Amino acid sequence: MNIRKIAELAGVSVATVSRVFNHPERVLPETRERVLAVTREHNFTPNWFARGLTLGATKTIALLIPAIDSYFSQNIISGVETVAGNKGYVVLFCQTHGDQEVEFDFLKLMKTRKVDGIIQVQSQLSETDFHEPLSLNMPRVHIGKNQDCGCHMVCYLDYEEAAFRLVKHLLTLGHRYISLLYDDKRDGELADEMESGLKRAGREAQCEAHLSIFRAEDSAQGGYRAFQRMVQKGTIPDVLVTAGDLQAIGILKAARDGHISIPEDMALACFNDSPVCSVVSPAITSVEMPAAKLGMAAARLLFDSIEDDTRDPDILQEMILQPKLKIRESCGNKTGIFELFV
């Protein structure tokens, strides 16, 4: 069954059947119903991809994201899907694992799939990394500070401000030596932002703060193993700040197994707040990053560009979202208030 057969059985032209599918308001109600009755009788489904090519829009967008298993990533996905769903679009998810080659291959694939736009999350690419010509004549938004990937629309979370607020709190508790545990495949910008925030907090507090960097997989197992290595080497930090909540959970488990008390022996904080941070013991001081709002902001930027083809694609559009510090017990806070919002 195809569109020609439908036209023949309904006693109309192929053009009329096409209008029923693409512009039903232009077809007389009785004619429209006759065509639809034939499609129902023969269980005919239009080829929406071919229809999209004809109309110049496939009603699909792509989301290229390093990982889909973290609470942070899931919130970005939720935000993007909310906006896309309201627009009647389908989202194609592409997990890059922070790998440049994988990300580049997905870009090529999305070009052949004729998606209407692409959102890239924490892209590891720069245009100089394109080892073969790749002309992407479609709107693209990048979630992250990296503008070298060729996106002229960017939105990101202010990690430097998040680091400043967190370190400022740690300094008031008397901590001076801070260690950061992050996954360089997923959190490439975090180390530099942490260092900038730490220096600004130190200047404001008129004291010197020191930063050490450690790397581990962004998972509970990654945090557990990383802390075990620290214990074995006798390098337990004064304060350990993790990039992800799962790493922090793994560290809590490793500390308990090693009879190390938090916060008495070591303070613990994380950059990615999640519901679990408030229910473990001790509750983990963390930075709430509005990831769902970030996904929604990126999607809105993308659809504004899709719907307005008069916009100059070379003009940079930048949107920055601010963090919120949630002070709990894991860093030594002694106040009677369960949770502070700074």
Question: What topology emerges from the helices and strands here?
Answer:
Layout: H1 3-10, H2 14-22, H3 29-41, H4 48-55, E1 60-65, H5 71-86, E2 90-95, H6 100-112, E3 117-121, E4 140-143, E5 153-157, H7 159-172, E6 177-182, H8 190-205, E7 210-215, H9 220-233, E8 239-242, H10 245-257, E9 267-270, E10 285-288, H11 291-307, E11 317-321, E12 324-327, E13 340-341
Helix pairs in contact: 1-2, 1-3, 5-11, 7-8, 9-10
Rg from Cα: 25 Å
Top CATH class of the largest domain = Alpha Beta
Number of domains: 3
Number of helices: 11
Major beta-sheet overview: 7 strands, mixed
What is the gist of this entry?
By secondary structure, this protein is of the alpha/beta class.
Describe the structure.
The chain is an alpha/beta fold. It folds into three domains: 3-46, 434 Repressor (Amino-terminal Domain) (Orthogonal Bundle); 60-157 and 291-322, 3-Layer(aba) Sandwich (Rossmann fold), CATH 3.40.50.2300; 159-288 and 325-341, Rossmann fold. The protein has helices at 3-10, 14-22, 29-41, 48-55, 71-86, 100-112, 159-172, 190-205, 220-233, 245-257, 291-307, and strands at residues 60-65, 90-95, 117-121, 140-143, 153-157, 177-182, 210-215, 239-242, 267-270, 285-288, 317-321, 324-327, 340-341. The strands form two sheets. A seven-stranded mixed sheet has the order 7-6-8-9-10-12-13. Strands 2-1-3-4-5-11 form a six-stranded parallel sheet, with helices on both faces. Strand 1 (60-65), helix 5 (71-86) and strand 2 (90-95) form a beta-alpha-beta unit. The radius of gyration is 25 Å and the shape is elongated. 41% of the residues are buried.
